[in-house]
Amino acid sequence: MITDALSQSPRYAALHPAFAHAFAWLGAFDPALADGNHDIGQGCEARVMTYVTEAADAKRWESHRRMIDIQCVMRGRERMDVADVTTLAGATAYDEANDVLFYDRAPAGATSAFVGEGEFTIFFPQDGHRPGIALGAASEVRKIVIKVPVAAD
């Protein structure tokens, strides 16, 4: 997992052939864009969403095999937990169509990132993650999750 400010994203452009494109799209994001899934090119999809954060025990752990998540908070603040997938337990069957596994338990040693407006995380396939967690009282968040294929086109 990587966590940083969107203003620092050029540092990560060389990590993957599509990262520069994804970060450029995030930097030019139009707040008027409707929630939903948007094809942004280079095999990437932007999932724009607005939701209310919840208590940690209401959120599920997940991981992906084919996609890397770049999760960028555009408004609000949330906690995102991360743990190595090999330490997660109770996995569901892999959902090939949605590229997701869910887990019911994580180790006590999970790490938390507190992500606010203009900050992002990158979750790689080995990073089990549980985003959308409230920091104290529940609050509204506007976030973009860019799905980047692990294998470059």
Topology summary:
Layout: E1 2-5, H1 19-27, E2 36-41, E3 44-52, E4 61-63, E5 67-75, E6 77-84, E7 101-103, E8 111-116, E9 119-123, E10 127-133, E11 140-149
Antiparallel strand pairs: 1-9, 2-3, 3-11, 4-7, 5-9, 5-11, 6-8, 6-10
Account of the protein in words:
- The structure is a single chain.
- By secondary structure, this protein is mainly beta.
- 6% of the residues lie in helices and 46% in strands.
- The radius of gyration is 15 Å and the shape is globular.
- The mean pLDDT is 96.
- Which architecture would the CATH scheme give at its second level? Sandwich
- CATH level 3 topology: Jelly Rolls
Which outline best applies? globular
Please write the CATH class name. Mainly Beta
Number of continuous helical runs: 1
Oligomeric status of the shown chains? single chain
Low-confidence stretches: none
| Whole-number tally of structural domains | 1
How would you state the average pLDDT, rounded? Answer: 96
For the sheet with most strands, the description reads: 6 strands, antiparallel
How many beta strands in the DSSP annotation? 11
Percent range for β-strand residues: over 45%
Task: Give the CA-CA distance, first to last residue.
Answer: 22 Å
- CATH level 4 superfamily: YhcH/YjgK/YiaL
Largest sheet strand order: 1-9-5-11-3-2
How large is the radius of gyration? 15 Å
Q: What is the chain-wise order of helices and strands?
A: EHEEEEEEEEEE
